[in-house]
Amino acid sequence: MLDFKFQILDFKEEVWDLYLPMILSVISLILMRKRIGVLRHANPDKDNFIYFVIFGIALCAALVSSQFYYKIKFSQNQTIPDIHQISSDKNVNRIKINSYFVDDAYLSSQFTRDVTGKYGNDLNFHFYFVAAILKDSLEEPKNDPPQVWFANHFSKTISNRLSDEEKRIEYKNFREKCYYDLAHFNFYNNTYFIKVPNSDKKEIYERLILNVVDNPQNREVIFLSPSNGKFNDDGGSVLSWFFYILGIGILVILFALIFPNYRDQPVKAKDEEDDFNFFLQLFVPKKGYFITPILIDLNLLVFIILSLFGVNPFYPQTEDLIRFGALSSQISNGEYWRFISSMFLHGGIMHLLMNLMVLGIAGFFCENIFGIARFAIIYFVSGIIAGISSLIWHDGNVILVGASGAIFGLIGSFAMALLLRNNFKENKIVLLVIFAYFVINIFFGLISNSDNAAHISGFVCGMLISLLYNVFES
After folding, report:
1. Could you say which of 404, 413, 450, 466 is catalytic?
2. 96, β-bridge pairs
3. Which of 226, 254, 281 is the C-terminal boundary of a domain?
4. What is the mean pLDDT of residues 446-470?
5. Average pLDDT of 41-52?
6. Is 198 in contact with 12 (CB distance < 8 Å)?
7. Is residue 467 part of a domain?
8. Could you check whether the bond before residue 145 is cis, i.e. omega within 30 degrees of 0?
């Protein structure tokens, strides 16, 4: 509703489709936390954390699927004789133009590269180009710039493990092919277009206009990308998936609610002001909890500074991360400071929040067990060893950011300390959260860019340091 009806919030497409549903799910769980207090377990040591997780996943999945349906269902089509009748309404994003002229005098292009795939295995070449769309060949643009632009791009993916010489050859061939294809490109092959939504791709197209016009901010610019066919999707398939997800979520929740008993009234929740004060204390250094809040504050500060410098807070570009200190093959040039700087960079806000949550929990307990100096040694040594292990494992072809290796070191040291002290029972909840973090990261390491080489080596390093502390103490 906010996106299509009111059109007052100019968020990017991925924010609407993913991050806002996640935020709304978290807010909903906070509001319903008192209700979950009616659940009563036979074992008083158990809590309701797993129910929050189940409810959150089900709610977020339903919200994401409903958002996709709403976007498809309520997107409007427009058929116009020429571009002078094009609508600037955000709801109109699928357009058929019966007649138009592409003015190559306003043609601009750009090559970009980025690294994706598991462990950065894929090197992607992109070629973006824009050209002004006019009513016909006789029309002179009345506005500077023209309002409507033809926007398209070519892409090619190669293995990032190729030698530098092979990459240069592939890139040269890609450039030559793009220039040839652009010179012979048929701008009139299809009359169906889709408006480019607010996204990183649109920002690239907007920068391209600067190459051919002097003042691109006179009016809102519309970018049109060619569509492969007619517009006949009414969102029926997405709606079916919504009901599948909703039904599965309800069944899982009902099944989970079979096991606990119930109280007549929810357990009285903590005073909200106390909760807020407790949250603020996580960022304030104090006796017994000194290094952890400093590390949390530094990670947040670096993230905010990079966002102010234009780094995308949701999907940071690989080039930006390398420029600001990511661990990469450039370490061979003597840039050893990257072992430290990479610990304070993150691949997006969700990566940051997950790491800081576990850092706050593990750091609180580890500082009490080991003290400030030993805690700092575990954190930074584990992080450095994790970086070295990742570079060795991936033969230098890796882009590593995040505090995960150092945090896994804290987890390993904490687990070893509990093992040596036989003190597992008193820390069940903490172990549950840490175990969930461990499993999630290892799982994503098998299917995504998450680096298991860094995680496992950091964990083992933390265990060994904790063991050495115990040996020397005894």
Report:
1. 404
2. 79, 192
3. 226
4. 84
5. 69
6. yes
7. yes
8. yes
Q: Is pLDDT at 4 greater than 70 in this prediction?
A: no
**121's tokens:** 């295995």
Task: Say if CB 307 and CB 350 are below 8 A apart.
Answer: no
For residue 184, indicate whether it is catalytic: no
Computed over every residue of the chain, the mean pLDDT equals 81
455 is catalytic: yes
Catalytic residue among 413, 455, 457, 466: 455
Question: C-alpha distances in angstroms, 205 versus 65, 130, 225, 306, 320?
Answer: 29, 7, 11, 22, 19
| 198 & 313 share domain | no
Residue found under tokens 């100019």: 10
Beta-sheet strands, E only, within 98-232: 101-116, 122-134, 148-159, 192-195, 222-226
Residues 6+ apart with CB under 8 A from 3: 9, 11, 16, 71, 90
Residue 403, number of CB atoms within 10 A of its CB: 28
Cβ contact 125:155 at 8 Å: yes
- Is residue 231 assigned to a domain? no
Query: What's the pLDDT band for 393 if we cut at 50, 70, 90?
Result: confident
- In this structure, the answer to whether residues 152 and 284 fall within a common structural domain is no
**CATH number of the CATH domain containing 419:** 1.20.1540.10
Question: In terms of pTM, does the model score above 0.70?
Answer: no
**Residue 247: which domain range?**
2-74+236-262
Please give the average per-residue pLDDT across 42-61, as a whole number: 76
- Clarify whether residues 53 and 101 are in a common domain: no
Which of the pair, 396 or 372, is modelled with greater confidence? 372
Q: Please count the structural domains in the chain.
A: 3
- Is 469 a domain residue? yes
Name residue 155's beta-bridge partners.
126
Encode pLDDT of 328-371 as tens digits.
877 878 888 999 999 999 988 878 888 888 888 888 888 988 99
The answer as to whether 104 is a domain residue is yes
Beta pairing class for 222-226 and 192-195: antiparallel
pLDDT higher than threshold 90 for residue 52: no
